[in-house]
Design a protein that fits this description.
Layout: H1 6-20, H2 32-43, H3 58-67, H4 69-86, E1 92-97, E2 102-107, H5 109-119, H6 129-132, H7 136-143, E3 147-150, E4 162-170, E5 176-185, H8 191-230, E6 234-239, E7 244-247, H9 249-254, H10 267-270, E8 271-273, E9 287-296, E10 299-312, E11 318-327, H11 328-339, H12 355-368, E12 374-377, H13 384-393, E13 402-406, H14 412-420, E14 421-422, E15 435-436, H15 438-441, E16 446-450, H16 457-469, E17 471-472, E18 481-482, E19 486-491, H17 495-500, H18 506-512, E20 515-518, H19 529-544, E21 549-550, H20 552-560, H21 566-580, E22 585-586, H22 593-596, H23 606-615, H24 626-640, H25 645-652, H26 656-665
Parallel strand pairs: 12-19, 12-20, 13-16, 16-19, 21-22
Antiparallel strand pairs: 1-2, 1-5, 3-4, 4-5, 6-7, 6-11, 8-9, 9-10, 10-11, 14-15, 17-18
Length: 674
């Protein structure tokens, strides 16, 4: 290190003068980094006799200070500590950014005033070599290392009054953030001054790294907290002793707890898991999607889906557990969404304009507004499930599951487990974690029990209990579970006869038959046959990419047919015709053989029916007009049958279609007779 003496000062001054005036000489006495800086300064066109008088404007200074706010806050404490050592010795400290702009300073007033006068050392001034030539701040930033510059080593003469020591400040990535400098009278130069600056910078860098690390940890914690809170499940985090160290709001809401009741409390004092297979605190392995019964002080025993993940440190030692609890109904809702347990049809999906089908839609819409159980009666193929789905989609349960189960299609031994589910290990071949039944999956929605008349008698008892208590108990289970399920049942059987034959429980029949809807067979709504035919034709032509029309004779034959398979049979007939038709016109030849050969039997005319209708029960009413007699005959029949259109039609000896026309003609509301 150069010895700063008076002799060296004279040699420096002589060398500086010669360099400024381009006088050749031996410059080896000048330190290499100083001579190189002089050369750069000359190339920048720096005036060696005058300092630059410009500084940043107030707005620009404010922007710089805001951008370096963190550096200034950290550096200030080190600058104050360092200044406390040199206070009164005419030294002061300067902090610059990476471009050499002064962003903070502290020091004795006399030296600050001297700095303003001799070298414009103020906040906003630039001390890079491009502006100020060779100086500790600018040259330090250029060389990217600590440096001490004394007296005539400065390139600009007014700066030669000072001795300056500076060191660069780096962030954790190795990028220069700025520079710390200490300046004072040149006669007070000391080698230890640079060491003091380097030590201060080292402290600044370490604190910046710690601050950055703390902020990163805070961000990670904030992100972790946000992630935990965004998860729909309840989450508890506890240490190896079971002490809860973190919990999300969903967990608090699930168990109706306050955070103060959970944090720093033992998990076993908060929740009791009634499952010997789930030793949460002492578990040696992760637990995945295990269905457990959990008891808490504020809620009744409830089923949850539990997962527990063990947390380890870098050394592989267990530090705690993250437990995730999901409500079973949430799992079921997700399962239903994936499994497609959703109603597709609405009342707009029902094709037809007949009075009969309009009445079905009317009563279906009324039923949708209530929460009562519904019984849908009708022959096979009439579209009972479409009606059930339409009622569900028009109700306040539309966003929840619609689950259909055919009671006649499942083996007798499986119906109960399908409906009510079972606990793990209940019987051979059962899933070890158990399985939810259709009633659990339908919670909040609708369950459609098709072919209810085929349900075994012993299972009818279980269904009746569900209807009465609104609870289910899994096979092999101990705890009842509350459910909110609307039941829509359907059958093509005569349940009244089944009750008489004791193949169907009368108490279950009355529970189900709160609101019944009769879906008429296709032969009783023949006005809809052409509409349905055209609908199916368009549907299947689009699928087969064909353009077809239908012969009028086909419509006539379709209208004459009795349709034992109802709408489903008509749909199949049209699909077959579209597939086998090779031209552009569907004829009778494209119909099935049985339909081609069918001959329409002669039936009573409308006049005959009207005569029967008028005189069947009120033949003694000699003073009544035909219209009055007809009206009274109909209302009398409805009164005797409690508004049952089917029975009233049978009583009068007419078809339901005829009776529906009369109801519309006389604006008779059958609901008033029920």
């Amino acid at each position: 290190m150069t010895i700063y003496t008076g002799d060296y000062q004279q040699k420096l001054l002589s060398a500086w003068n010669n360099f400024i005036h381009d006088v050749p000489m031996d410059y080896s006495l000048i330190r290499e980094e100083i001579l190189s800086s002089w050369k750069r300064s000359k190339s920048y066109g720096i005036d060696p006799y005058n300092i630059i008088k410009t500084i940043l404007g107030k707005t620009e200074i404010k922007q710089r200070l805001e951008a370096k706010k963190e550096l200034i806050e950290v550096a200030q404490s080190y600058m104050k500590n360092l200044y406390s050592i040199v206070k009164g010795s005419s030294f002061y400290l300067l902090l610059s950014d990476e471009e050499g702009y002064i962003i903070d300073l502290i020091g004795d007033k006399d030296i600050i005033d001297k700095g303003k006068e001799n070298s414009l050392l103020v906040v906003g001034a630039n001390r890079s070599e491009q502006y100020a030539g060779t100086n500790a701040i600018g040259t330090c930033l250029e060389l990217k290392k600590p440096i001490q510059i004394w007296g005539e080593e400065h390139y600009v003469k007014p700066h030669q009054y000072f001795t300056c020591s500076a060191a660069p400040i780096y962030d954790k990535t190795g990028k220069i953030l700025g520079c710390l400098d200490i300046s004072g009278p040149r006669e007070k130069v000391h080698l230890h001054t640079l060491g003091m600056v380097v030590a201060a910078v080292d402290g600044i860098e370490q604190q910046l790294r710690m601050k950055t690390a703390y902020e990163e940890i805070s961000i990670i914690n904030s992100q972790l907290h946000g992630t935990i809170e965004s998860i729909a499940s309840g989450i508890f985090v506890f240490d190896n002793c079971g002490t809860v160290i973190q919990v999300n709001n969903n967990a608090l809401n699930l168990f109706k707890l306050h955070k103060s009741e959970v944090l720093n409390k033992n998990i076993s004092s908060i929740l009791t898991v009634n499952d010997n297979n789930s030793p949460l605190i002492n578990s040696e392995k992760n637990i995945y999607d295990q269905e457990v019964m959990i008891t808490s002080n504020n809620i009744p025993p409830s089923k949850f889906n539990l997962s527990a993940t063990l947390v380890y440190n870098n050394e592989g030692k267990r530090r705690g557990t993250v437990m995730i609890l999901k409500e079973i109904k949430y799992i079921h809702k997700l399962t239903n969404k994936v499994s497609g347990f959703k109603a597709r049809y609405t009342f707009d999906s029902i094709i037809g304009n007949s009075l009969e089908i309009k009445e079905v839609i009317k009563y279906g819409e009324i039923a949708a507004k209530s929460s009562s159980n519904i019984l849908i009666l009708g022959e096979s193929g009439t579209g009972k499930e479409i009606i059930a789905q339409s009622i569900h989609n028009a109700s306040n349960r539309a966003d929840n599951p619609f689950i259909a189960i055919n009671c006649g299609a499942l083996p007798k031994g499986l119906i109960e487990s399908e409906l009510f589910g079972y606990e793990g290990g209940t019987f051979t071949g059962a899933r070890k974690e158990g399985q939810a039944g259709k009633f659990e999956l339908a919670d909040g929605g609708t369950i459609f029990l098709d072919e209810i008349g085929d349900m075994p008698l012993d299972l009818q008892v279980s269904l009746l209990r569900v209807l009465q208590t609104k609870e289910i108990v899994r096979i092999g289970g101990k705890y009842p579970k509350k459910i909110d399920v609307r039941i829509i049942a359907a059958t093509n059987a005569d349940l009244e006869k089944a009750v008489e034959n004791r193949s169907f429980r009368n108490d279950l029949y009355y529970r189900l038959n709160v609101f019944y809807i009769h879906v008429p067979p296709l032969r009783e709504r023949k006005n809809d046959i052409k509409i349905l035919t055209d609908y199916f034709l368009d549907t299947f032509c689009n699928l087969e990419k064909k353009v077809l029309s239908i012969d009028k004779a086909v419509y006539k034959q379709l209208n004459n047919y009795t349709w034992p398979g109802n709408v489903r049979e008509l749909e199949n007939v049209i699909e077959r015709a579209v597939n086998i038709c090779e031209g552009y016109y569907i004829t009778i030849d494209h119909l099935p053989q049985n339909l081609q050969a069918y001959k329409h039997s002669v039936k009573p005319t409308e006049d005959t029916l009207k005569t029967n209708l008028v005189y069947s029960t009120l033949s003694s009413s000699e003073n009544l007009t035909i219209q009055d007699s007809e009206y009274k005959t109909i209302t009398s029949a409805l009164s005797k049958t409690n508004g049952n259109v089917k029975k009233a039609a049978e009583f009068l000896g007419v078809g339901r279609r005829t009776l529906y026309r009369k109801l519309e003609k006389y604006t008779i509301d059958i609901l008033s007779y029920r």
